[in-house]
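A quick aside before the break. I want you to see a complete sequence-to-structure record at least once, exactly as it would be stored in a machine-readable document. Don't worry about memorizing anything.
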Amino acid sequence: MSAVLATPPATSKSQEEPTIDGFHLVIDALKLNDIDTIFGLPGIPITDLTRMAQAEGIRVISFRHEQHAGNAAAAAGFLTQKPGICLTVSAPGFLNGLTALANATTNCFPMILISGSSEREIVDLQQGDYEEMDQLAIAKPLCKAAFRVLHAQDIGVGIARAIRSAVSGRPGGVYLDLPAKLFSQTMDAAAGRKSLIRVVDPAPRQIPAPDAVNRALDLLRGAKKPLILLGKGAAYAQADADIRALVEKTGIPYLPMSMAKGLLPDTHAQSAAAARSFVLQEADVVMLVGARLNWLLSHGKGKTWGGPKQFIQVDIAPTEIDSNVAIAAPVIGDIGSCVSALLAGLGSGWAKPPAEWTGAIAERKDKNQSKMVATLAARPSPMNFHSALSVIRDAVKARPDAIVVNEGANTLDFARSIVDMYEPRKRLDVGTWGIMGIGMGFAVAAAVVTGKPVIAIEGDSAFGFSGMEVETICRYNLPVCVIVFNNNGVYGGTDVNASGTSDVAPTVFVKNARYDKLMEAFGGVGVHATTAEELQAALGEAVASGRPTLINAVIDESAGTESGRITSLNPSLAKKK
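That is the input. The structure line, written in tokens, reads:
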């Protein structure tokens, strides 16, 4: 008699202990670790994951290109100290996200790029799977850590390791590879829940050694011309009150790097930003707080730095010390713990810097600021960078909680020095790599994460990298005002094709382009502004209304300079100099 497979009774084990699939284990693992937003782009094999995540209460912000989703995840990580999540499809989508992953690692932003991938057994034998690529091998050299999960029971471990890697020590980008077959795997639901991990203390404090703190304070005490230099690592640390207290109690002048602007208001009496060249050349002891002596600071040597000086460096990574010049007093630990220890060691008898030093800085600041006042007050037609940015400067002063996103060449350089910031982590820009294309991704993340108004100051060339994401801004009705500084080209629209053919020069765009119409096409507000007064009215309305807005700000096409302020990195221009 043959066997008959009967339908299990209602009390069977299969009904008492249902199963859970890989999709839901990924979602539950993220939720368990307070991940509430995913930036990405749906497609094979992760389309259903985006749908299910949204159904389970995770906000899914879908972009038009993975690179911009990745940039959004990186910016979210910087603003929240939680790893921003970027979700992409396999192969081409993964590669699109890879630029953002590498940029996040370079900038020390915690981010996790999660990509679907082809099956290992086919990839390893190179048998030609759909979008076949060994994504893990490609990602490894470009990020802080990379992991692959092959079994449903390991999803919890994989996500936990990715989170801890992204935020511990020096933050950075992490890649997590999830092959398509993983999502459909099932396991016992109770066992699945037990396999998930809530990461405990993912970024533990690293307390500096007492002798290191004392060495740094002794060096500062003996300085005649001390300077504190604040980097974006100091902004990321969210140790705002202690950093301000350290600056004010020591009385030492400080210089903020661009994304550290606002840790103390740029109008603070001790700010040396308006005398940057002077203080870098003249200081004898410089304390770096969350800043690196890379190309942005001329590697700590050369004409920028003038005579000999000694450095104190506060950093979480001991391998950063002595990377360019000798560091006399390294203080290794997380920024919050280090600054707290330095504060505690000041004591009540701390002597502030000599009046000769602070007075010389004040004199130089007054001279430079007086020149700037007249320049900003001018109202040329068409607008130049100064007249347009003076309008934005006033708007940010009126709304200090607004977040400024900034990219370009001249647009970036001038905005850094003209637009004052008043609160920490309110300025996002191209950062360490100086990479173009971060604008719309950063703007979306800033609006989603904070709910605050965002003012994206874009060069027309920089805007072109991510301009299609204005549709994303409109789709989610985000309070973002994009201002495109339209000067008809890269650096400007005056370059000429020396060959005499009909093609325009490589740096020249379509003359008098109407970027505002792009925003209107998706239901947002588009404004064509040719004067400072028109720009002022449009920006004020955009910030007040919170509606997606793009202002096409017409700038004199001859107002910019090639390569902005980094002409020394342009071989042809450097040779001319």
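Two observations worth writing down. The first helix runs from residue 13 to 16. The radius of gyration is 26 Å. We'll return to this after the break.
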